[in-house]
Structures are given as C-alpha cells and as structure tokens.
UniProtKB/TrEMBL annotation:
It comes from the Eukaryota. Belongs to the prefoldin subunit alpha family. This is Prefoldin subunit 5. Coiled coil: none annotated. GO terms for cellular component: cytoplasm; prefoldin complex. CDD domains: Prefoldin_5. GO terms for biological process: protein folding; response to cold; RNA polymerase I assembly; RNA polymerase II core complex assembly; RNA polymerase III assembly.
Length: 160
C-alpha cells in the first residue's frame, strides 16, 4: 500500500499522474473509499479542535471577567453545564486550571491567561496542519473518483 500512496502523491507533482490511472476499477474504488473515510475522520478532528478552541476562548474571557471582579463578590459558580451554585469570590489572583483527565493546577491569573493563550495557539497550529492534510486527501479522492468515472464510462459502451 505504501507504493500506492507514493504513486498517488507523485501525481500532484506534475507529470506523475499516470500511476493512479493504471489502477484497476476495484483499486480506484478502494482508494476513493479510503480517502473519503480519512477525510471524514480529519473533518471530525477539525470539528473537535474547533470546539476545544471555542472552550478555551470562553475560558480566557471568563478569566478576564473574573480578574475585574472585586474580592467578596457574590456570583454563580458552575458545577456542570446546567448546574450552578451561589458562591463568593475569595481570591481572584489565583485560579484552578483544568489540564485534562481530571487534573487541576493552581496558577496565578496571569499564568492562567497565558496557559489559555498557549493552548489556543497550539490548537490553531494543529488545525491549520490538519486542514492542509485534509485538503490533500480530498484532492486525491477527487482525482481517484474522476479517473474511476472515466474508466466506468469506457467500460459501459464496450459492454453493450
């Protein structure tokens, strides 16, 4: 399968497109199905990154809002997405940062904001890289689909 990927990938380099055209109809269908599946998985990953970035943006906004509130301020504290309890702001200088898998780290407000910004930048970088890979996979799938359609048209009149 590695040689197949190499042959397909070289077609975008200009002049190397003959490799994919030599594949049988069954092989072209397999390439098309595989690339479509990979593109769908990459789209799911892109959506997950988008969701995580939105959450971090909201967390960053919440930290900015929290830093402006005076100590002793009464507020609602979220326990879940739909359950809030009454609370009082005790220390706006230190926050607990969720670093994943149920672990929280106490950080200063500035460190918490910095953490959010670094994670947002990392996610945006990963998003851009995945978008590029998804675009390449989609073009390979489209190329395989076009060649498959052409081959099926060639086979159709000869069968009659």
């Amino acid at each position: 399968m590695a040689s197949l990927k190499g042959g397909i990938g070289s077609s975008s380099g200009g002049g190397g497109g003959l490799g994919i055209e030599k594949l049988s109809v069954e092989q072209l269908k397999a390439v098309k199905e595989q690339t479509d599946m990979e593109v769908n998985l990459l789209q799911d990953s892109l959506n997950n990154i988008r969701t995580a970035t939105t959450r971090l943006d909201l967390a960053s906004i919440a930290l900015n809002d929290l830093s402006l509130r005076p100590q002793g301020k009464k507020m609602l504290v979220p326990l879940t997405a739909s359950l809030y309890v009454a609370g009082t702001l005790d220390d706006a200088d230190n926050v607990l940062v969720d670093v994943g898998t149920g672990y929280f780290i106490e950080k200063t407000m500035a460190e918490g904001k910095d953490y959010c910004e670094r994670k947002i930048n990392l996610l945006k970088s990963n998003f851009d890289q995945l978008l590029e890979v998804a675009s390449k996979k989609k073009s390979i799938g489209d190329e395989a689909g076009a060649i498959l359609q052409a081959k099926l048209k060639q086979l159709s009149p000869s069968a009659q």
